[in-house]
Batch of 4 targets.
Target 1
Amino acid sequence: MALPEQSSMGAFLAAHPHVDGVEAFVFDIAGAPKGKWLARDKALAIDAKGLPIPLSVFAQDAWGCDVADAGLAFGTGDPDGLGFPVAGRFALMPWLDGHRAQAFLALRDGTGAPAAADPRGALEAIVARYAARGLTPVVAVELEFYLYRLEDGVPVPPDGSRQASWLRNDTLSTSALAAYQGLIDAIMAAARDVGIPADGVISEAGPGQFELNLLHRADAVAMADDAMLMRRIVRGLAHKHGFGATFMAKPYGEASGSGMHIHASLNDGDGMNVLADPATGAPADMLFHAVAGLVAAMPETMLAFAPNANSFRRFRPDAHAPVSAGWGHDDRSAAIRVIDGSKAGGGAKATRIEHRISGADANAYLALGAMLGAMLQGITDGQMPPTPQDPLNPGAGEPLPVEWGAAIARFAGSGKAAEMFGQRLVDIVVACKRQDRAAFLSHIDRFEYDTYLPLL
């Protein structure tokens, strides 16, 4: 629950008289924060008046350039939306010197509705469809990232042991946590201050790789906010401590990729998990309907989980990043893992679905929206999923489009994605990613020259 001082920008500033400036921002399609720095007096006005921000901020490529084909910047007059502060998300910014705070905004269009180009608003609409059925998604996120240092512009493990690091697996190493105690403590403290229920951190397999566990919430939009704000906190504080931090899906070709696993269950009005049998806790038919929807939609919505060129480097056989749309009972090799609370010891509340496709680089609003949207489609259709995969022979489901261009094309033509997000947002996302991809295709790197100049 938000503290009284978190109820508004005015209340927060009254409780923090030393704050002399505020960073007010939204997250764009790529997940980058975009906004303005405001003087204290100017920030006091945004509770009532909002902050004008161009709607075209949601139609920029990975380098911050306008995407003409998205139809927001050119030929429209480039109109503003109004950003209003999200209560409970005011906090100091400990990674910056001086007395500066942050205000996270939700962007509304001229009618007061969520801007059509804003993925956060699309997730709000999906959650509202559940509410119309008397259901509330309960979601949690596991978010992985790497710490690094730069050598000649190239990332290397933060301890500098690049060559030996690929031979070492630091999964669940407490020594690796202790080595970065100051930074980890600062991250967890900053998370608490901005209302993120981060309840644990572990060392992961890669050198300098960690995973943050965000405790489940009966508010999917707030959980997506948590994931996006956590990325910002980690990057800011890592820099202050002398490191880089990245949520790239695959920063090193030789090491483990970084994912964003999403867990979801569904509560009814009495707080009971409708994905489980109330007596035994075992999966109910509604869970399997949801799984059927996830399996059916996954190939078409891959772009929501793997949005960037680098995203697709994660997807390799036997690499904990599934390459087919399959599911299984407590099977971590499957794209969809069904967790049975009656066997896990947690009862009905612990029965849930884990979605294991998304990379840490995904826009959390699109990733959660694609997951919850597909679950709802499956529940509406009432179909049962295909046979679960054999853990000894994974990959039996429909192959996923594990190439960027193919994923963009599937998303562009997807009726399922249009139903989830609205055709306008689908078109904007596709336009942005096509412009990104065109830029990558025009760039030739050193490895390509080294390979082909002497060969051809």
Target 2
Amino acid sequence: MVTKANKKAPKPTNLDELRELIARESERLTPRMRDAARHALEHPNDVALNSIASVAAAAGMAPSAFVRMAKALGFDGYSDLQRLFIAPLQDAVKPTFRERIRHYGGEQALDNPADPAEVLQAFSQANIVSLEHLADDAAALPLKQAIALIQSARMVYVVGLRRSYAVAAYLTYALNRVGQPAVQLNGLGGAIAEQAFGANEQDLLIAVSFPPYASDTLAVCEQVRAQGAKRLAITNAFLSPVAKDADLVLEVNDAKLLGFRSLTSALCLAQTLAMGLAFSKRTQRAKRAGSKGRGATPDLHDIDC
């Protein structure tokens, strides 16, 4: 449970501060409080616009779990916490539009979803906002640690199913192109557990998953953890089930329109990891060769990533 000292700390004033507080205090919360916090962070607009009874019913939990979670984090109660979720929507366009594009920074109005040009314009703008947030958070992401974790692995296993499949496929391709052995766990023929069977303490699993989290991805995470492999999670929140017990977590958010989710930020992060690994390997080769000049290192222009 959260201590009295933690309760006296200033309560968050925005959702970013709330995410940081929940990440810090995760171990101090009860399992039900963590579930309530995770649901709130994954469904911010539902929390802002619906009653506690509706939110709790959607989460399959008792309303009291959300109340206890709010108080444990320093709020007077659920209504006090809810005001934090309402604030980002107060300056938004009133909900007279037919659909809304949700993204890391709030919501994007979409007046005519039947017009593909308008959808493209609105979705592009939402992706720009998501990328801007990713750029703002870049310094806080453990990118160097992630690259070191990848580079130290004998074999990198990459799993990403459903909408995350494209990110996993690209990352596997890019890692192999820069000289890091990698294999994608695609579950072909229902054999995903067998594909991950060889992962051990010398290996790394990179798991890419976003809500709704693929059950096979979660199962593989548990499997390789039992086999001793390290795990890097690329997901939307530190409290996501994919991040549980991971050695390292990279948090990334993309825009969403109904059931369609963008891959822009996630792919940008995957490219960063591959490029960072390529330059790290090049630097190490230069040091081993005892050269200080760029000309003695392999050219990366033909990597084709």
Target 3
Amino acid sequence: MTKTSKTRTALVHGGSRRSQYGEVSEAVFLTQGFVYETAEAAEARFIKAGEDEFIYARYGNPTVRMFEDRISGYLGYEDGFACASGMAAVNGALMALLKAGDHVVSSRALFGSCLYVLEDILGRFGVQITLVDGTDNAAWDAAIRDDTRLVFLESISNPTLEVIDLKHVCKTAHAKGALVLVDDAMATPVFSYAHECGADLTIISTTKHIDGQGRMLGGVICGSKELVRGPIETYVKHTGGAMNPFTAWSHLKALETMDLRVRAQADAALKVADALVGHPKIAAVRYPTHAAHPQSALALSQAEAGGTVLTFELKGGRGPCFAMLNALEVAIISNNFADSKSIATHPATTTHQRLPQEQKDMLGISEGLVRFSVGLEDVDDIIADLLGALEQA
């Protein structure tokens, strides 16, 4: 197949490798190691492995390589390295590219585990961290210095769905010689605009929309071959964060339907947001490309849809919020998102529970905030479920 980007064809055929048996469905190579015909062949492979030569599952695997090629090509990047989880990918990319004394500028609105890696782990090893309001272009301009090594952000923040002007950030960072690393979990691979806006590296939590059915943990770091097969591969393969071959095989099969699933969920998410806007028990509704979102114009200038997740804030705080959550019959209460099942999450007491109250207040993670991940159920059933549950709030 020819190299194709952003098409369903790429999700079905990209990166395919067939064995001598000519299988239709991709093969899963559940093996830790590989056999060499001679001692000389083993020596040569350890000096420099060829494109389709493998040494050990922690270093690479034919099934994993198919997945890396397929997803990186789809996103428009030269290469990718698949990891054991989304956070393994975040940690792997940051640790591989940074050293003591380096300066990082990051948006303040980040998933709690990302903040932990930045402030606690990297800070402990002497990396300087500057956090900014990601929605403020002037704040990025002021914070990114001549000695800034890397800029890190979520293109759409979790859980408050702030939208960052990614083209502006990339332009500012590159003018100072800094790399841009984007966490694209909320934007989704289908609507990702990181490469088109100039991001050097993109991280996808494959647990989310790629698996999308509550089965597998995974992550992938996509970027230039120089970065991915250089410092990133070196760090991840030596520290053990590589993806399991069975997970990669499951992801390959899931990619075949991802575009269909995510587009259906995004269409439904917009309809759900529309149904909730103006409800008397709701103070605010946010879905990036809905007119009720304060940055909808920016979101629409960057992507055709705002992903599969919306947030809404109930009046009255935790009491009414918990009553509404407990009354849901179709949606489930959990802490994942981008699943085929609709999921309601209360970030203040679960995913972002450990953030200091001052930080929650700054980010807008209130006691009444609900993150709602729209699944593949009939959208009328989802809306009826939410409206019925709101009667209990």
Target 4
Amino acid sequence: MDLTDLAPLAFFEGPNGHHVAYRYLSGSRPALVFLPGYMSDMRGGKAQAVLAHAAAQGRACLLLDYSGCGQSEGTFAEGTLTRWRDEVVALIRALGLPRVILCGSSMGGWLMLLVAQTLPERVAALVGIAPAPDFTTWGLSAGQQEELADGHVIYEENPYGIELTPTHPGFWADGQDNRQLESPIDFEGPVRLLHGQRDDDVPWDVSLRLAAALRSADVQVTLIKDGDHRLSRAEDITLLLRTIDDLVVTAA
């Protein structure tokens, strides 16, 4: 059966008034919630693999597009971590999901930390795929940050497409206000971090820094020596799904 039949496209009116696109598959709990990366959406290969795996196991799963991304309303230039966190939190509450496992890819790995700290009673575990917390600091030069602080949009080469990747001043300022790696992160549940050592976008030591910052004692970092940033090869997807399966047992 087509995944679109299993989890039809729906829209939720988010806290900022935009209609947020999502697909929800009902099933056993905890539900899997996939948080895509910067300028990405729920049509990506990892998100679809998680949904298909959940369907095969009869497990609940939620995919979504942040406002300004994918099929959701809004403009990307208005997007911030706080805005997108609030959309994810509101949708989890609206669907009545009592326990979830957050799977965050790249920027989604930053966002999952913010969601987990907002919904500590509902978030059972975290899976970070090349997580990128605080990239508004370590990912940008001092000159770029000065441009953003002055209200200018900066553009960078996009290794995954022909269009340049923008960073907007509002997103940067909000990111600076939501930095995670400079103090203990208040999450006590199990955490699994997957990171390729050939990642040209997010240095793999960011996962080690994140592991050190988390209060949880149950944190494991898996380094994939020949893995890139996307971790979208068949063997990478297999590792991700196996990691999720192990966490489902641990978090039950």
